[in-house]
Amino acid sequence: MMILLIVIVAVAGFFISSAILLGLSKLFKISNASYRKSMLVVLLSGIGSSITGIVFSLIGLGVIAQILSVIAGYLILSSLFKKYYQASWGKSLGVYVANIVVGVIIALVVAVPIRLFVIEPFVVSGQSMSPHLNQGAYLFIEKFDKNIQRDNVIVFKSSNSQAYLIKRVIGLPSEKITLKDGQLSINGSLFQDQYVANPISGDANANLGSDEYFVMSDNSAPSLDSRTFGPVRLSDIVGKVLGQ
């Protein structure tokens, strides 16, 4: 699902970027501007800018690499405008700068609210969710859907440390969770967790409230989870991990 979402966003971004470039081209009175040519310019300039950005980052010049990437982006766009529109470097520079400004505005108006209320990136820290989610794994959190189900992987704010933790949901609201001698029971029935990588240790008894969840780590033996810090409230949950 996450891959499909990324593809949809990328395709939509391509068509929107092409429309914006066409509008800016007409604004700067570049003759023969067309949507088809704008799509081609966006595609080629995007490929060229990505390659030069990777090269500059590998060289390791820090801030200078970012400045060089911006300059390279303009040179690529200018050469494409000269090829397809016979546009002067001045008009190309105007379109390039205006395109950056529009991009920043769109990021503030669209991207920021999306990150705050819809989807947010998250990087896994530690090995508590291995082998399913290892250190450094890059994930996306779905924030608008709080319909939490068993086996969902969630990110939540720890009430003890205020840190953001990632765990798997085992117990749902109003359920009774019992852990004794490595045996986990939910409402009196033995529960076999297919994701736990190690034998479950420790004891726990929890009568979950109407807004509480019992969470555990996949790599359960060396990890802290609801066995130690208790249930997680719905209000502390940031969201579910997409694709998990």
Report on the architecture of this protein.
- The chain has 244 residues and is α+β, with helices and mostly antiparallel strands.
- The protein folds into two domains: 2-117, no CATH class; 121-241, Umud Fragment, subunit A.
- It contains five helices and eleven strands, in the order ααααβββββββββαββ.
- The longest helix is centred in the middle third of the chain and has 29 residues, at 89-117.
Task: Show the helix and strand layout.
Layout: H1 2-27, H2 35-59, H3 63-85, H4 89-117, E1 119-123, E2 138-142, E3 153-157, E4 164-171, E5 176-180, E6 183-186, E7 189-190, E8 204-207, E9 212-216, H5 226-229, E10 232-233, E11 237-241
Antiparallel strand pairs: 1-2, 2-11, 3-4, 3-11, 4-9, 5-6, 5-8, 6-7, 9-10
Helix pairs in contact: 1-2, 1-4, 2-3, 3-4
Low-confidence stretches: none
CATH class of the largest domain: Mainly Beta
CATH architecture designation of the largest domain = Ribbon
Taken from the alpha-carbon principal axes, the silhouette is elongated
Count of distinct structural domains: 2
Rounded mean pLDDT is 87
What integer value in Å does the Rg equal? 25 Å
CATH homologous superfamily of the largest domain?
Umud Fragment, subunit A
Strand % is 15-25%
SSE order, as H and E? HHHHEEEEEEEEEHEE
Report the count of strand segments: 11
CATH topology of the largest domain: Umud Fragment, subunit A
What is the number of helices?
5
Main sheet specs: 7 strands, antiparallel
Structural class: alpha+beta
Task: Please give the oligomerization state of what you see.
Answer: single chain
Relative helix content: 40-55%
Distance between the termini: 9 Å
Which sequence of strands runs across the widest sheet? 1-2-11-3-4-9-10
